[in-house]
């Protein structure tokens, strides 16, 4: 008799357990249905598409940065056979770190004037910036650059240093900007031997020799705090003996 009662109790316990979890699930669905509906309504098709575009742009930018760095960075035609290039793995890893660290919104919509007499050598760098949403205008000379600056607004200037036989064309261009009160950050992108301290003294925001460094420097330049600090420094008269 006792054994039969025990078996009945055990069977009832299993039956209750079998119905308990579905009941709990039904309660949770009933309890949180409004929240789930709100979440699904906010997660619209447009949002999903935006996530996809962002991811796709980051992949494309990362690939372009890695290709640029593997090609030798700025002024690739000057790269000597003895100079070391980064390994494929390290270039890809660095490019991915850069694109992951910089949200697309930081650069999207920015307008860059790129001064270089051989712009084809920067095609991967320009592709990477385009994937970040940057609009690029090319000038092949100082004269073209000054003309473009008088016609349209820009957020940043990227310049090479040597053009033709002029070893310091970048510095000459920089000197012509100051009296015109063109208060834009100027970044030198070059593999030429260039002392960054002197370049900053002369008014440059910074110097980059690799695409990955260039992207980071551009992001820093367009931030308000960095720009204000840079412009205060640049507005001071150049003094060869004074290190900023």
From TrEMBL:
<protein>
    <submittedName>
        <fullName>Response regulator</fullName>
    </submittedName>
</protein>
<feature type="domain" description="Response regulatory">
    <location>
        <begin position="111"/>
        <end position="225"/>
    </location>
</feature>
<feature type="modified residue" description="4-aspartylphosphate">
    <location>
        <position position="160"/>
    </location>
</feature>
<keyword id="KW-0472">Membrane</keyword>
<keyword id="KW-0597">Phosphoprotein</keyword>
<feature type="transmembrane region" description="Helical">
    <location>
        <begin position="12"/>
        <end position="30"/>
    </location>
</feature>
<keyword id="KW-0812">Transmembrane</keyword>
<dbReference type="Pfam" id="PF00072">
    <property type="entry name" value="Response_reg"/>
</dbReference>
<dbReference type="InterPro" id="IPR001789">
    <property type="entry name" value="Sig_transdc_resp-reg_receiver"/>
</dbReference>
<keyword id="KW-1133">Transmembrane helix</keyword>
<dbReference type="InterPro" id="IPR011006">
    <property type="entry name" value="CheY-like_superfamily"/>
</dbReference>
């Amino acid at each position: 008799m006792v054994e039969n009662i025990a078996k009945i109790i055990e069977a009832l316990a299993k039956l209750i357990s079998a119905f308990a979890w579905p009941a709990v699930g039904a309660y949770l669905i009933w309890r949180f249905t409004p929240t789930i509906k709100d979440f699904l309504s906010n997660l619209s098709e447009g949002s999903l598409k935006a996530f996809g575009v962002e991811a796709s742009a980051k992949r494309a930018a990362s690939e372009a940065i890695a290709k640029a760095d593997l090609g030798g960075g700025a002024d690739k035609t000057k790269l000597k056979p003895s100079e070391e290039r980064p390994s494929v793995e390290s270039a890809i890893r660095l490019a991915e770190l850069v694109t992951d660290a910089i949200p697309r919104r930081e650069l999207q919509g920015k307008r860059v004037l790129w001064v270089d007499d051989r712009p084809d050598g920067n095609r991967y760098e320009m592709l990477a910036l385009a994937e970040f949403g940057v609009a690029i205008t090319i000038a092949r000379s100082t004269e073209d650059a000054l003309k473009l600056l008088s016609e349209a607004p820009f957020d940043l200037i990227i310049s090479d240093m040597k053009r033709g036989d002029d070893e310091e064309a970048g510095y000459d261009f920089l000197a012509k900007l100051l009296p015109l009160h063109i208060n834009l950050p100027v970044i030198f992108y070059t593999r030429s031997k260039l002392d960054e301290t002197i370049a900053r003294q002369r008014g440059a925001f910074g110097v980059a020799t690799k695409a990955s460094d260039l992207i980071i420097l551009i992001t820093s330049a367009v931030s308000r705090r960095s720009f204000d600090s840079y412009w205060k420094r640049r507005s001071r008269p150049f003094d060869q003996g004074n290190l900023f």
